[in-house]
Amino acid sequence: VLVSYVADNGTVHEVAASVGISLMEAAAMNDVPGIEGDCGGFCACGTCHCYVDESDAAILPDMHELERATLDFAYDVTERSRLACQIPITEQMDGIRVRLPARQY
Ligand code: FES
Q1: Which of 47, 59, 70, 73 could make an SS bond with 104 (beta carbons 3.0 to 4.6 A apart)?
Q2: For ligand 1, atom 4, which residue shows the shortest CA distance?
Q3: Nearest atom within ligand 1 for CA of residue 85
Q4: Chain center to CA of 70
Q5: Residue 70 is assigned to a structural domain of this protein
Q6: What is the CATH number of the domain that holds 51?
Q7: Strand-strand pairing, 96-99 and 2-6
Q8: Quick check: is 67 in a domain?
């Protein structure tokens, strides 16, 4: 499926990602800048912080307690914030655009 990562400066990185891996893993495997994933996807670091569009909420898994807690470690968090490692890619997400924050630290 096609996933676009939109950097804070507007640069778009389009990635052909496999279903089943996370939005963080797809970014890391394709060297997308602006997303770190320091903890390796264990919902422990907050450096895979991204923003999702409200219109995509229905096709994304709900936030669980741990994701909400770990987001407290991220910067510039808004109500659109998610941790990319906690979102597995599905067929329904084909064409999704994910925005990346200006900083992860
Ligand atoms: Fe560490 Fe997502 S990679 S919280």
Answers
A1: 47
A2: 43
A3: 2
A4: 14
A5: no
A6: 3.10.20.30
A7: parallel
A8: no
Q: What pairs with residue 19 in β-bridges?
A: none
- Residue 69 lies inside a defined structural domain of this protein: no
Q: Classify the C-alpha dihedral 59-60-61-65 as positive or negative.
A: negative
Q: How many domains, the chain?
A: 1
- What is the domain range of residue 41? 2-62+77-99
Nearest-atom number in ligand 1 for the CA of 48 is 2
**Nearest ligand 1 atom, CA 86:** 2
At 82, list the tokens: 């998610």
The pTM (predicted TM-score) of the whole model is: 0.96
User: Measured from the CB, is residue 41 less than 6 Å from ligand 1?
Assistant: yes
Strands (E), 7-103: 12-16, 49-52, 81-83, 96-99
